[in-house]
Amino acid sequence: MLPIFRGIAILEGISYLLLFALSMPLKYWAGIAEPNIYIGYAHGVLFIGYLLLAAWVWWQRKWGFGRLAYLVIASLLPFGTFYVERRWLRDLSPESSG
Fold first, then answer.
1. Which residue in 17, 45, 57, 76 has the fewest CB atoms around it within 10 Å?
2. What confidence tier does 92 reach under pLDDT thresholds 50, 70, 90?
């Protein structure tokens, strides 16, 4: 489950950046709304997937509540999921519990 969570964390971060750096400027500055719709949907699905997988990994690894809160807060910040993936997910071995 951890490799899937790592992948979703990266994709969620990319979709978040695309939403703010590409599709929102196109929508509000150029009047082109279509990219915002599709990127917004993709980001929404990835965001929900990230939160569900964060809760699942948190439960499986028996991490403290503070780490779950950190995972959730990181999903709300630009570059937050990249930091989480690098700091906590990249070097975890399957048997470590953090």
1. 76
2. low
What is the number of domains present in the chain? 1
- Residue 3: band (very low, low, confident or very high) from pLDDT cuts 50, 70, 90: confident
CA 39 to chain CA centroid, Å, is 14
Residue 18 counted as domain residue: yes
Q: What is the 3-state secondary structure (H, E, C) of 39-86?
A: HHHHHHHHHHHHHHHHHHHHHHHCCCHHHHHHHHHHHHCCCHHHHHHH
User: How large is the C-alpha radius of gyration of the chain?
Assistant: 15
Tokens of 19: 């939403």
